[in-house]
């Protein structure tokens, strides 16, 4: 263990650590699991309100497992990376059916659960069970890369191994939870991605990136791949009682398992789609302003086509993926953020 490195983080955390985070108050293995998954690729300030609402509705593994996936996705709506919510639900079902709704306390058991990798498993074991397991989330990678001047893109297996080795070396045998939260907090609040506050960092005097003026160069950045562009044509149907027609999307693909306005695929038109699905003819289509939305791998251009019906909603011809919903739509279903915004502006 690098005692100076570790002790400085522990001392810094005593004074500056974020001890008022909601998952730090009366923590449990369940609440720490949920928070760690929500925090994957998402900032704390964004996660907090979602975490509070989620825990209020699903306070235990038992309650979560006995709920419906649609509702779980509903409480995740807007947070993004929806595979996380599906994996949490799948894991809760496994624990409910096979482990009496008890979250396991061994690495081998935790790592088998859907959506949990080495770092998340380590964080749960360190924070919930005070066991000596190291972590390597984005914040920790940044702190270690700068302090030890580790060069090379983080995606390289050799760099990953080096950082894991450094994480293992610096993780203490005592005060595990404090150190784990401390190094994450330091990376999030001081050793930030841009404009790090080196003057406030307890590690700065020996930080090689600061010494060589390479804070902005480390961790090494890989070349960004150009995102694919994708147009999505939607049919926005609203009846005279302000009910809207939504489609449950396939599990795979963009917004998998969420509800959206129906998508018009290649070879279809709004007119032909409505005739096929609802058995009615339409005379007017209003093209709403397009919406640009960026995902990890796609830049979307969403093109909504609004159809206002003068009569009550027609039947959907036994299509199991189509549902009429009253506006506003409640939390019982998951809706992607741009679709939710579109609904709110109808």
Task: Tell how many strands the DSSP assignment holds.
Answer: 7
Give the name of the CATH architecture of the largest domain.
Answer: Orthogonal Bundle
CATH superfamily of the largest domain: Hypothetical protein, domain 2
Q: Outline the low-pLDDT stretches.
A: none
Major sheet summary line: 4 strands, mixed
Q: Which range best describes the helical content: under 10%, 10-25%, 25-40%, 40-55%, 55-70% or over 70%?
A: 40-55%
Tell me the number of helical segments per DSSP (H or I, 4 or more residues long): 14
Q: Any idea of the CATH class of the largest domain?
A: Mainly Alpha
Structural class by SSE content: alpha+beta
Shape: elongated
Q: From the alpha carbons, calculate the radius of gyration and give it in angstroms.
A: 24 Å
- Tell me the distance between the termini: 59 Å
Strand content: 5-15%
CATH topology of the largest domain: Endonuclease III, domain 1
H/E element order: HHHHHHHHHHHHEEEHEEEEH
Structurally, how many domains make up the residues? 2
Mean pLDDT: 94
Comma- or semicolon-separated keywords:
3-stranded antiparallel sheet, about 350 residues, Nucleoside Triphosphate Pyrophosphohydrolase, elongated, 14 helices, single chain, 7 strands, alpha+beta
Short description:
With 346 residues, the protein is of the alpha+beta class. 41% of the residues lie in helices and 12% in strands.
Provide an overview of this structure.
The protein has about 350 residues and is an alpha+beta fold. The protein folds into 2 domains: about 5-210, Orthogonal Bundle (Endonuclease III, domain 1); about 230-345, Nucleoside Triphosphate Pyrophosphohydrolase, CATH 3.90.79.10. It has helices spanning about 5-15, 30-40, 45-55, 60-65, 70-75, 85-100, 105-110, 120-130, 140-145, 155-170, 175-190, 210, 270-280, 335-345; strands at about 230-240, 245-250, 260, 285, 290-295, 300-310, 320-325. Strands 1, 4, 5 and 6 form a 4-stranded mixed β-sheet that branches. The protein has a 3-stranded antiparallel β-sheet with strand order 3-2-7, with no helix packed on it. Helix 2 packs antiparallel against helix 8 (about 120-130) and helix 8 (about 120-130) packs across helix 11. The chain starts with a helix and ends with a helix.
């Amino acid at each position: 263990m690098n005692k100076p490195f570790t002790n400085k983080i522990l001392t810094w955390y005593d004074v500056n650590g974020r001890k008022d985070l909601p998952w730090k108050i009366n923590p449990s293995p369940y609440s720490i699991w949920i928070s760690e998954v929500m925090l994957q690729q998402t900032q704390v300030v964004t996660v907090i309100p979602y975490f509070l609402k989620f825990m209020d509705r699903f306070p235990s593994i038992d309650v979560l497992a006995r709920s419906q996936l649609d509702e779980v996705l509903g409480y995740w709506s807007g947070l993004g990376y929806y595979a996380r919510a599906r994996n949490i639900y799948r894991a809760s079902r496994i624990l409910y059916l096979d482990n009496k709704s008890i979250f396991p306390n061994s690495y081998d058991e935790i790592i088998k659960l859907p959506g949990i990798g080495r770092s998340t498993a380590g964080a749960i074991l360190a924070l919930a069970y005070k066991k000596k397991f190291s972590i390597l989330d984005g914040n920790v990678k940044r702190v270690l890369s700068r302090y030890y001047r580790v060069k090379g893109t983080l995606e390289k297996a050799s760099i990953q191994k080096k950082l894991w080795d450094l994480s293992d070396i610096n993780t203490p045998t005592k005060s595990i939870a404090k150190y784990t939260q401390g190094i994450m907090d330091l990376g999030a609040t001081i050793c930030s991605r841009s404009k790090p506050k080196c003057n406030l960092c307890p590690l700065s005097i020996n930080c090689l990136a600061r010494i060589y003026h390479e804070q902005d160069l480390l961790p090494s950045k890989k070349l960004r791949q150009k995102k694919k562009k994708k147009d999505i044509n939607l049919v926005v149907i609203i009846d005279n009682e302000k009910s809207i027609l939504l489609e449950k999307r396939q599990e795979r693909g963009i917004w998998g398992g969420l509800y959206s306005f129906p998508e018009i695929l290649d070879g279809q038109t709004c007119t032909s789609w409505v005739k096929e699905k609802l058995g009615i003819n339409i005379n007017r289509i209003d093209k709403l302003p397009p919406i640009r939305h960026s995902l990890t791998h796609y830049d979307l251009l969403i093109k909504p086509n609004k159809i206002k019906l003068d009569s009550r909603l027609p039947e959907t011809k036994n299509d199991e993926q189509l549902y009429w919903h009253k506006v506003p739509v409640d939390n019982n279903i998951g809706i992607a953020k741009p679709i939710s915004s579109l609904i709110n502006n109808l």
